[in-house]
Write a structure and sequence with these properties.
Largest sheet of chain A: 7 strands, mixed
Catalytic activity (chains A, B): thiamine phosphate + ATP = thiamine diphosphate + ADP
CATH class of the largest domain in chain A: Alpha Beta
Number of strands of chain A: 13
Protein name (chains A, B): Thiamine-monophosphate kinase
CATH topology of the largest domain in chain A: Phosphoribosyl-aminoimidazole Synthetase, Chain A, domain 2
Function (chains A, B): Catalyzes the ATP-dependent phosphorylation of thiamine-monophosphate (TMP) to form thiamine-pyrophosphate (TPP), the active form of vitamin B1.
EC number (chains A, B): 2.7.4.16
Number of helices of chain A: 9
CATH superfamily of the largest domain in chain A: PurM-like C-terminal domain
Strand content of chain A: 15-25%
CATH architecture of the largest domain in chain A: Alpha-Beta Complex
Helix content of chain A: 25-40%
Shape of chain A: globular
Family (chains A, B): Belongs to the thiamine-monophosphate kinase family.
Oligomer: homodimer
């Protein structure tokens, strides 16, 4: 499944833009926050808080996903999940997404319908409406999703509120997608646990609002890698962080994969992106919400981001065009 | 200016993703609706109505724009304008946009900065915040913009509310972008009025909320061509329309260009897309708001969409992959 035409299979050019829109929107349920769904110039979504949280992420074939590694359904799930993770990292509850899709005319219809099945599945899992979109022709598959969310009356939890003395905590898993990438890159398709983690993340959506309610002072979703994203938090807040490796979970599965591939699983945990765990800081007086665990401490800015008190010497994150 | 590297010019790969983000966000003002702007996992935008209007449009190089015909700044303006037109076609006031951009590593930095200058200029013209975005690598330039808007307590004006007997009315110009496309396609660069109309539309943003306040029963922005978009209104509302050509404005400039190129300017007015005028229906008892003019009548569905009482025999609109 590489997005090339299948003999006898229908392509998007055969069905056309409007046929394709009908194909991917028919029969989809909407949550109660969707006041006016797809089919008009724009959609209308409930924003009971009187403010709306908005974020956008674009996924490009060959850069963010490969259709020989992931099914179109996996890619659809991933495209939604990476956006919803950003919404919940503000402490908000996601309400809706819109989907911009560019794809070549020879794209098999099944690729697009399965992509939207994945989008719908992940949206449903998070009780989020797929409320609109745009489908256009292009040389490669580019999926651009924008997600909206509601703050429920709370202030947004930004990257800039961490204070020295705060507890550094994590919810969700790290290193799995990186381990999956290493496996896939060597031509393997198993173990399925890490491979699936690379295909699509499973961010802990509810943990964002829970952290906000508990009093989190700053929060970010780990998309570029723990140390890279803590660097973003550190710069925005004007603090430093020390991550304690004895507080990190290195799952036995990652140890197995690391042993098999001759790789260091702790490096995946510290630097692997795309798992979309949440990292947050809490005042030291707070009881961490369920699912959150302490992984280190918030320090003065001059400390930088350290691991067990020392700088981390290896490559720490991903940057486009670099 | 075709997006290829200029000798000695800096490229996006040289400055990197984070440098590029700094480059295009630095020093941009935000309207009061932007409660939290770019730089965090997500932005926060005022939604005083308690509902938010959302729409998305994706523009692809070579499909929606050509950098040998339009400057990057024009493309940025166009990418924003086509989205804001959808927001105002719901009767809403646009508040913000987010921008997803994919581009090749060898894209000159100036192309991206000028693109964002255009985005910012059009947003400022409409008092809309550019509140966030995502920049990634891809094989071609793809700009995916999502716009948000506020209904100010009014019901959205959908495509489905037209009733037989309603007045069919228009605000904004038609045929200009099509005339510009014909000029550019023949290798000319003037007259500049029609050429610029092809480069970026100037939708009448305020006319959408004004129509809603006046009691418009249905509304759409003319992106695919008047007859094609009236077809969308007709199907959604279960009505027919008759457009009266004696009520349409065929600007002297379009007549001139038509004469020069041996083309029918009325065809451009009836079928040319990309001008993003607004078409709406009003109860016959309503005084049309300023800037709106009657162009025809709303009929029973079996009439279809006709011109001076007869079916229009030529090609009426654009569809992707067709």
């Amino acid at each position: 499944m590489d997005g090339s035409p299948t003999p006898g299979g229908q392509t998007v050019s055969a069905i056309g833009e409007f046929g394709l829109i009908r194909e991917v929107t028919a029969g989809r349920a909407q949550p109660s926050t969707t006041l006016l769904g797809p089919g008009d110039d724009a959609a209308v979504v409930a924003a009971p808080d009187g403010r709306v949280v908005v974020t956008t992420d674009t996924l490009v074939q060959g850069v963010h996903f490969r259709l020989d590694w992931s099914s179109p359904g996996n890619v659809g799930r991933k495209a939604v999940a990476v956006n919803l993770a950003d919404i919940c990292a503000m402490g908000a509850v996601a309400t809706s997404v819109v989907v911009g899709l560019a794809c070549p005319p020879e794209t098999p219809l099944s690729v697009v319908t399965e992509l939207f099945d994945g989008i719908a599945a992940e949206a449903e899992r998070a009780r989020v409406g797929v409320v609109g979109g745009d489908m256009v022709s292009g040389k490669e598959i580019v999926i651009s999703i924008t997600a909206l969310g509601d703050l429920g009356g709370r202030p947004p939890v930004t990257r800039s509120g961490a204070r020295p003395g705060d507890v550094l905590a994590l919810c969700g898993r790290l290193g799995w997608a990186a381990a999956g990438l290493a496996v896939l890159g060597r031509g393997f398709r198993s173990p399925v646990g890490v491979v699936n983690a690379q295909r699509y993340p499973e961010p802990p959506y509810a943990a964002g609002p829970q952290a906000a309610i508990a009093g989190a002072t700053s929060m970010i979703d780990v998309s570029d890698g723990l140390l890279a994203d803590l660097g973003h938090l550190a710069r925005a807040s004007g603090v430093g962080f020390d991550v304690r490796t004895e507080l990190l979970t290195v799952a036995p599965k990652l140890v197995d994969v690391g042993t098999a591939l001759g790789a260091d699983p702790l490096h995946w945990v510290l630097t692997g992106g795309e798992d979309h765990a949440l990292a947050a800081t809490f005042p030291s007086t707070v009881d961490l919400p369920q699912g959150w665990t302490r992984i280190g401490a918030t320090l003065m800015p001059e400390s930088g981001v350290t691991v067990d008190g020392a700088p981390y010497e290896r490559e720490t994150g991903w940057e486009h065009w670099r």
